[in-house]
Fold these 2 entries.
Entry 1:
Amino acid sequence: MAKILVTGNRLRLRQAEECDIAYIMGLEYEPENLKFIVPFSEELHLAVIRSPEESMDIIVEEKDSGEPVGYLWVSGLKNTSHEIEWTHVIIGKKGRGYGHEAMKLLKAWTFDVLKAHRAWMDCKDYNARALHLYESEGMVREGLIRETILTNGVYENLVILGILDREYRDRKERGMEHAGEP
């Protein structure tokens, strides 16, 4: 039985299992997603699924149907500074508000369950849709790493975004976050 991490109105986050590997790999290598991420190998995903102490693959699924709608990769679970990296945030069913709910659930799990101090992520600077989502969910642009990734012979920039536990709690007090407890 898959471990449920947190549940929202329409979605829930659960720890990925080996049977999810085809779905994860399909999302990563879908052309619309691939241009915005650096994909990981199936072997790496399987290693993380089998031993999720430092990093974890997480499936975003519809609460009622159990149908997967996205996938997350989270790292830093043993970080002594209580800093979590959200390495991949990929929603397969776009345009339904699932990205917003998935981000709210990810923040609730990160700050309410894991008791993290800080969460951060990077995003390619031309991924306007994702940057809008992350910033609308309270992420703050902290910097720009110029020409750091070489993709198809072109150097790309990464925007670094972060959110602190006190910023999350402030948003939660103002009713901007997941209302229930994980």
Note: The domain at 4-173 is CATH 3.40.630.30 (Aminopeptidase).
Entry 2:
Amino acid sequence: MCLDCGCENANLLKTNPALKSLNSVDFKELTPLVQKIQVGKDILHKNDKQAFANRENFNRNGLRVFNFMSSPGSGKTTLLCALSEFLKNRERTQIIVGDLETSIDADRLKKYYSSVQQINTVASCHLDATHLDAVTIEEKEGFLFIENIGNLVCPASFDLGEDKRVAVISVTEGEEKPLKYPLLFKDADLCIITKTDLIPHLEFDINQLEENIKKVNMSAPIFHTSSKTLEGLSELAKWIEGN
């Protein structure tokens, strides 16, 4: 994440054995080793240009594209596994999984979907439109689900060429998350609350969570789901297939 976002250099210097000789350096006077880059016009312009090309390619192939975004551990992968049983055209649904490393989530999803592709970004904490440039379109006239990297901040800033943005939040994360990370929820076309089967074991107010979501986004529908009890998955599948 540091290589991508340009975090402070002090920890880098203190923890990298090759840079021990610099431990006595006054960091305030040090020219940054990793230049901070504001995610501004130039970077987003390049991304948006590629996103436009991606969108045209997806539309040309008859794909409806959903970008699933959330914090790590919200249950995106488990949700998509369970949702497969309720999709009428599961055989025509493709999955792209974004992770820094490993294919753990993609390997799980291959048990439920015939077309699953892995993108490893290594250092980047989000997918951007260029990552999807080389994606193989294996099925036409179907769905493409993008499981973005677990992060409530960076993924929300990058258009991938998707048709719908999906904000996923679990009941274990706290009711205040939509207020603390508003961009992801503000731009969402759909909000999914996961792990509702755990509510009896938590001090959690799901009504407060919904209220906080609506404070930043009044129009996005909200689904309560559990991949364990299958609550809400039939209704969610119908919404996806209708949009």
Note: The two ends are 33 Å apart (CA to CA).
